[in-house]
Amino acid sequence: MAGAGAEEVVRQALAHADGLYNFARWLCRDPLEAEDLVQETYARALGAAQQFEAGSNLKAWLFRILRNAFLDRRRRSQRAANPDSLEETGADAEPADGPTSELEQGQIRALVADDVASAVRALPEAFRTVILLDLEGMTEPEVASVLGCAAGTVKSRLSRARALLRERLAAYRPEPGAC
Amino acid sequence: MDCGRARELNLDGQRGRLSAEATAELQQHLSTCVRCRAHAEAERVLSEVLDSLPQHAAPLALKRRLAERWPASLSGTLPPRRTWVPRWVPALATAAAALAIVVAGSTSLFVEQRAALRQLEGESVNDHLRVLEGAPLARVTGGLHEVKPWSGGKLDFAPAVRFAGNDDFPLVGGAVEPFLDRRAAVFVYKRRLHTASLFVVPSEGLAFPPELRTQTVRGFHVALWQDEGQGYALVSDLDLQELLLLQSLIASR
Known about the structure:
The complex is a heterodimer.
Chain A: H1 3-14, H2 17-28, H3 31-47, H4 58-81, H5 102-110, H6 113-121, H7 125-135, H8 140-147, H9 151-171
Helix pairs in contact in A: 2-3, 2-4, 3-4, 4-8, 5-9, 7-9, 8-9
Chain B: H1 3-14, H2 20-32, H3 34-51, H4 60-75, H5 88-132, E1 138-139, H6 147-151, E2 171-179, E3 182-191, E4 194-202, E5 213-217, E6 220-227, E7 230-236, H7 240-251
Antiparallel strand pairs in B: 1-2, 2-3, 3-4, 4-7, 5-6, 6-7
């Protein structure tokens, strides 16, 4: 990544700032931490620029760096809080994938974005990530490139994540009188 | 096609990522399988509610920092040229460069601030025109307590607006509309036959002036100010004095 080509890569990379920041906000919630994470992502990308192959997917590469930076931070804070703690992957949760009734679908549709956002935030990280990357418009191969796994794994993880989300949203009951 | 395969392809089908042949097979299966049809509908509803999640745009200040750092870092990786120069030249060059940076920096900052203000004013007028042209509004008949249902869930901040309208300036509606890189809460007030639109957004990264500033843009009066992290843009073809009266009602605590 050098010369005129490098300038073009920089321009393209900066065009993903909104998507990266949105992803960071959903991963870590805190706006300042999200900003730090995005800055760290670009710094890491610059440091690893030689590893980036021209013609490969720049967006997926940047999202992968951001997710790794997020996981590194989380591991560090977990170790600091509890050196013996086991890492939560969460992807082992097995939701029931039965059909949702029409009544439950009506309830889901009636939820406001705050409720949906809470349900997304409450998902295990592995599930939350595939949901967010899918919302970002990435294809399964792109998500696989971010996560460093096979596209088939992404398909099955996305399916389980959505099933879990449907299950939780269908069970959600807004507080009476809330507006 | 069996149920397992149908569910596997369902999402791709809803997103138009399947071939015509696979789409037809999937539709054929759905037309005969009640459980898979219910599953497909549940997936569609989930996609619908997920699409309503707020998107967080990167603050402009962050974008500026990134844009400033990246090209600088790249040029810093180039090998330095070695040519002979008198010893005093670097010092003089450094001083001149520093002076140039200060002068150019302050000038460009001034130009940049004015450009940012003009952008805010222009955007406010454009959005006001959308309101006048009939952008969908939630009609308000009972005051501000009706605001939450239409803004709730669509914004990642709570607009700090307490003026619920009065006989002179009734509050007639509200909406959530795009405003530059973020979403704005829109409050629409009336004054006789005139319409005044108030746009409220988080002010971070935008050039909202700390003190009230008015400007006339394309025949509309625009009042901009900020308070406690929120930026306010009030736009109308009202007489300026009347607009300022409305502004004082909105800004009063």
